[in-house]
Amino acid sequence: MGIIMKHLYQKQVLRFVLAALLVIGLLGSTGMNVEVRAAEAKRSENKKISLHSAGTKAETRPDEKNGENAGENIVVVIDPGHGGSNLGAQYLGVSEREINIITAEALVEELSKYEGVTIYLTHSSYEDEMSLKKRAQYASKVEADYLFSLHYNASGNHYFYGAETWVQSSGHYYSQMYAFSQILMEGYENYGLYNRGIKTKLGAEGDEYYGILRECKKLEIPAVILEHCHLDHPQDQKYVNETAYKHFGYIDATAIAKFLHLSSEELGVDYSGYSYELPQEPVENLPNDETGPSCHLDLLAVLSEEETTRNQAMKETFRVTASDEECRILYYSYSLDGGKTFTQLKTWEEGAEYMDFSLSKSEISGNGIQVAVYNEYNMDAFSDILWMDEYANLDQVEEPTLEPTAGFIEWETSEAEDEELYLYIIVGACILLMILAILAMAWKCSNDKVKEFAKKRELILAKEAKVEEAKVEDTKAEETKSEETKSEETKSEESVDEQSEAKDQSKETPLENTTVS
Predict the structure, then answer these.
(1) In what order do the strands lie in the sheet with 294-299?
(2) Could you say which DSSP state residue 86 is in?
(3) Rounded CA gap, 124 and 145, in Å?
(4) CA angle 436, 439, 441 (to 5 degrees)
(5) C-alpha to C-alpha distance for 20 and 435, rounded to whole angstroms
(6) What gap in Å lies between CA 130 and CA 127, rounded to an integer?
(7) Which strands form 223-230's sheet, in the order they lie side by side?
(8) From the CA atom positions of the chain, what is the Rg in Å?
(9) In angstroms, rounded to a whole number, what is the distance separating the alpha carbons of residues 402 and 396?
(10) What whole-number distance in Å separates Cα of residue 252 and Cα of residue 150?
């Protein structure tokens, strides 16, 4: 009966485990298909359009008025960066040359809904080989007013994150593309991206460092490079998917429409009155930052040994002060091992002179604290190392009132992300239940084995006890028998002695009689 009950119990647990695994599988497949279904739904909603490259252009309405460009037909060239053997940034199976095309197609589709603009693509397949010089020449051939080169970013050590633009460094090329970039960056920041800045960079000969900007400038075409996000950093991983690649195209198109004062009857928007300021036109090429930032680290509060013992969770506050005369400070990080390793980069509040961060006593006890800061050109600076054992015996210093500062970007979560979080919670609960069921089954089996072993042990001990009792009884019986045997032998010997003595007496009696006579 016990064996039958045990079999039924294990069978029920097994059924529960299989049901939990089935639920996890269904939820997992649902989660993986959410993005695919969303992308398919988005595709079905959008209008199908043909790409315009190699001299083919979209429909335009040159008679429409568009603010400062009234009566003009503006020609725009979209250049998906890289292509052919030039793969661009590569990270975890994602190839920049392929996703640049996805963003370009979305940009063309969205911008084609505006009147008064002609749109060309330098190439429509990521397999196309096309030099930077030929791209600029193609833009000149179609009499382009502007060229927008689309890219995605990555850093050699995977440190950096955010979006940026690179503009030509002088004249109206600089002022116009800088104004456009300000509009674009506002859209990127609204999407949740960190703003890495609007920058120029010169080559060894004092002209534009980036080839597409240099070649376009030679042909008198204002151009800009759009770096949408970093493919290789966790902070930007939420943008590494097809839905985001297309959304970047919509943001880019909207920024271009605002910059060119376009309007769209189809979309119901009119940017003809959109206002922005053009910065002053530099006469000479603006150089990029070559000096780098500076920084300093201070300890604002030191806990006494008594208070540290009383509250191990008490925090100590540090302040890192940094400056750069030529460009913004973008990031900071700190090391707890004297500069051997550093935390991931934290965002530096724009315009702030310093940033504060706090660490618990257990984190910093006896360690060397060092801070690093980075500017827009990824140039770094390191503070002196603050060795905490030097402060171990100092009295408590009154902590000053600190102004609130921002150490991290707080991302807003979408409904899709909330649903994903709920999905993770449900899957986690199912996994936990499965683990508990397995543990319960293991405990039951173990408990049954222990009981079975105990019963066997009792039987063995009982058998051994009976054997010992039998041995004792046998021993007693042998001893009793031995004593009886000895007693009989003793009696026999006594009888023999008596008989012998009697004979002796009978022999002696006649002699005595004879003597008397």
Answers:
(1) 294-299, 315-323, 354-360
(2) B
(3) 20
(4) 110
(5) 10
(6) 10
(7) 117-121, 74-80, 146-153, 223-230, 163-167, 195-199
(8) 46
(9) 17
(10) 9
* Best CA proximity match to 74, nearest among 18, 30, 119: 119
Of 145, 62, 67, 59, nearest to 108 by C-alpha is 59
* pLDDT tens, per residue, the chain with 517 residues: 444 444 444 555 455 555 555 545 544 444 434 343 343 333 333 333 334 344 334 333 333 333 344 347 999 999 999 999 999 999 999 999 999 999 999 999 999 999 999 999 999 999 999 999 999 999 999 999 999 999 999 998 899 999 999 999 999 999 999 999 999 999 999 999 999 999 999 999 999 999 999 999 999 999 999 999 999 999 999 999 999 999 999 999 999 999 999 999 999 999 999 999 999 999 999 988 888 999 999 988 654 555 545 454 567 889 999 999 999 999 999 999 999 999 999 999 999 999 999 988 778 776 789 999 999 999 999 999 998 776 554 444 444 443 433 333 333 334 444 556 667 788 888 888 888 888 888 787 777 777 777 777 778 878 878 887 777 777 777 777 777 676 666 666 656 555 655 555 554 444 344 333 2
Gap between the Cα atoms of 511 and 442, Å rounded: 104
Cα 401 to Cα 15: distance, rounded to the nearest angstrom: 61
Structural tokens at position 446 = 């173990």
Q: Name the one residue in this structure whose structure tokens are 């309405």.
A: 61
Q: Which two tokens stand for residue 184?
A: 């674009």
> Residue 89's closest CA among 225, 231, 246?
231
What the block records as the tokens of 110 is 């969205």
Tokens 């198109």 correspond to 253
Cα–Cα distance for residue pair 14/1, rounded to 1 Å: 20
The tokens describing 498, both together, are 């008596």
